Amino acid sequence: MFNKRVKIKDLLATDATGQEVTVMGWVRGFRNNQFIALNDGSTNNNLQVVVELGMLDETTLKRITTSASIKVTGEVVPSLGKGQKLELKAKTFEILGDSDAEAYPIQPKKHSLEFLREKAHLRFRTNTFGAVFRVRHTLAFAIHKFFHEKGFVYMHTPIITASDAEGAGEMFRVTTLPFDNPPRNEDGTIDFKEDFFGKSTNLTVSGQLEGELGATAFGEIYTFGPTFRAENSNTARHLAEFWMIEPEMAFCDLEDNMNLAEEFIRYIIKYALDHNREDIEFLAQRLADEEKSLPQDKRSEMGLLEKLDFVVNNQFERITYTEAIDILLQSPAYKKKKFQYDVKWGIDMQSEHERYLVEKHFKKPVIVTNYPKDIKAFYMRVNDDGKTVAAMDILAPGIGEIVGGSQREERLDVLTSRMADMHVPVEELSWYLDTRRFGTVPHAGFGLGFERLVLFVTGMTNIRDVIAFPRTPKNAEF
Amino acid sequence: MFNKRVKIKDLLATDATGQEVTVMGWVRGFRNNQFIALNDGSTNNNLQVVVELGMLDETTLKRITTSASIKVTGEVVPSLGKGQKLELKAKTFEILGDSDAEAYPIQPKKHSLEFLREKAHLRFRTNTFGAVFRVRHTLAFAIHKFFHEKGFVYMHTPIITASDAEGAGEMFRVTTLPFDNPPRNEDGTIDFKEDFFGKSTNLTVSGQLEGELGATAFGEIYTFGPTFRAENSNTARHLAEFWMIEPEMAFCDLEDNMNLAEEFIRYIIKYALDHNREDIEFLAQRLADEEKSLPQDKRSEMGLLEKLDFVVNNQFERITYTEAIDILLQSPAYKKKKFQYDVKWGIDMQSEHERYLVEKHFKKPVIVTNYPKDIKAFYMRVNDDGKTVAAMDILAPGIGEIVGGSQREERLDVLTSRMADMHVPVEELSWYLDTRRFGTVPHAGFGLGFERLVLFVTGMTNIRDVIAFPRTPKNAEF
């Protein structure tokens, strides 16, 4: 057994003064040939390890470089240094792995996020990314805990799918056919019957339709899995591969859906604040420092912690799409022709419109409901006005759309006629329609883009910085 | 708000006698025009709803068919029926959705698992699959809880990857290039620079290598995500798309790794036994009934509950590969030439050999360690004998390999020379080797196939019956 160590987070959380412990980790700094800042990834707080002068020979001292790994056994003693209560007085010291300080790409200085993105395989070893990915972990756990405690069943909906009916975006093909000489039908088209699954298959864009199958059996289910878009969007908000959470609830209408989504978002943010306070404090400081270089009017009105506390403690604003359009039409921005895109009832609101509503007008998260049916998906429930659907989008300051959901159309006749109108193949989705044929129920659900949530909670601004190894156009490194 | 209901599981767990409650669910049975067996997916236990004679008209009574959805408000009263403490005396009754009893594919009788596999979109509404997928949920939650409480960081390693270096199996190509007229280089080969990611990409076969990047920063991480094999294996144990859990731990050797894996498996099985007892009891009975039709010597020696309790309460057997081969060579099966494949040191043990060890010889889970290096992956740590590697496989009765893991080769020179021997491209994996260049540490990890675990815990025998929508050769329905 090698793993007889105490994690630094646990050590710093207890009063272990006088005890002998073993720690292992990577060197973050070394000064005066005496004081090692040791990090083991459990927290951003380094443990100060003190090697007394004369304890180690010159050769060993030279090997204590940034990112070298060491094992130290010693006595926990009160620290005289600033910002730490404890330190470790080394008794035995061992270098586990050297690190050539010249060659190591991450120097003990501030690197740009862009530079670290190129070194994504090592960026976890920095304070910023250490904090981001520990917060990401906690959010993921809180999501499972929230749904588990409510009795939702976690469903793994398929990643590879033959369905291209949802129309949520461009898709990646999954195939084992050879490009060089693919099998062809007599008419020259590709013979996908020869492909691995006996048909043309893609990566999923959403688990919702399969989720509805689960909800109409288990009552309440959720998914949490990867989803894909083959869109050539090189922005700070888009990924080709991202993780999505999709709860789906039987016996649930639009209002129940909004209530759940709001409770959910508040719960997981509070959970992160309670369990990763020091990581979020670090990220709040990082953001504040970064914004210092911006002109006053580009800075956030609230600090990160203030913003998160605000979301946890305040109801989201709820308005209809029609009200949203009215607010935009009455806005100084519209009257002064500050919007690039026109505003009128029926438009698919652009990012500038959503940001105006959330960041300028309401200054908090906003739930917009009852969108025009022509700009929304076929499965959303048609309202009695015949013009709108029971959709809801949650817009968050700085992020834009973070949740998209709806009550689903449970009436078979309305659904099939809408599918026909929108050229969605009824035959291919016959399995889906069975939920409406056999004991249909009012039901609803939503999708939350996980990385957008992580952006919101960490205060990071580029989505590539909150997923371990981002997949974007022309980029699939590591 | 529509969702003002009590879940049947919660109702049956409390003494709500005398209270007025609303329930919603699907009809499982209806007899004497009076007694409805109502299920809402929260449990296999139906709630008996009593509609007094004369309360509903003929037309409504006829609509109370299998899988019709209803909403009932009434008074909770003690039940005189067998096997239930409570029932609901209906005061108001509403049909939410009809179900044409003739057309509904799942009749109130026993269907074969094969038939239900064809109706995978509705099989969640049966007792067997209700229990299986609730247990699957609980196991997934227990996995997150186990690692979270130990301070592991949950990492989402990439699904789409350009790396084909691990050699774990055949892969699915991911592409947006057109088959009909793909871009070509001057020499006629396909120009993957024009593909979405600017190179040839595949679906991941394992997140381990990326996981090691996380472990050497956070100390301990785990993954839980989908993995893929494009193997033409049409067996009861193989899926083209399955979910895998891969923990990876810095400062950890083979023994630590085995201890963790064993603690982990015991924890999650105990968690399921504690939280889904009634589902597992149902599945145990199902298995016992099924085995009645088998000849005595084909039946399990232990019932499902007995087997799971045994695993929770007993250490796994630990033997080296060399010892395993000796046991096989000494076995009556070998001496009587009952094995189809030959046994000698150096073979990759076949299923028949593993089953002999686990089911006949030890009659419990077995951890086999220190396999010949020639049959194992390049990243496994070479033992001092130069012939074996610090690998460990956990073999489970009835399932075979459920966990595969190893201590990783942390010595850069040993690793690169082994990669060269095995024709693994060192240059392409330079990012991976950086973990060995900069502060390398002893580390280890393992992979657990989630569906094989679910098979083990539910007593199901075909892996297609424990994942919602199985992907297998020539099959990607729903």
From TrEMBL, chains A, B:
Subcellular locations according to the entry: Cytoplasm
GO CC annotation: cytoplasm
EC number: 6.1.1.22
InterPro entries: Aa-tRNA-synt_II (IPR004364), aa-tRNA-synth_II (IPR006195), aa-tRNA-synth_II/BPL/LPL (IPR045864), Asn-tRNA-ligase (IPR004522), Asp/Asn-tRNA-synth_IIb (IPR002312), NA-bd_OB-fold (IPR012340), NA-bd_OB_tRNA (IPR004365)
Keywords for the protein's UniProt record, in alphabetical order: Aminoacyl-tRNA synthetase, ATP-binding, Cytoplasm, Ligase, Nucleotide-binding, Protein biosynthesis
Major place of residence: cytoplasm
Enzyme class: ligase
Example GO biological process: asparaginyl-tRNA aminoacylation
SUPFAM superfamilies: Class II aaRS and biotin synthetases, Nucleic acid-binding proteins
Domain Aminoacyl-transfer RNA synthetases class-II family profile intervals: 133-470
Record-linked HAMAP family: Asn_tRNA_synth
NCBIfam families (alphabetical): asnS (TIGR00457), PRK03932.1 (NF003037)
PANTHER family: ASPARAGINE--TRNA LIGASE, MITOCHONDRIAL-RELATED, ASPARTYL/LYSYL-TRNA SYNTHETASE
Subunit structure: Homodimer.
Name of the protein this chain belongs to: Asparagine--tRNA ligase
Organism: Pseudobacter ginsenosidimutans
Annotated gene: asnS
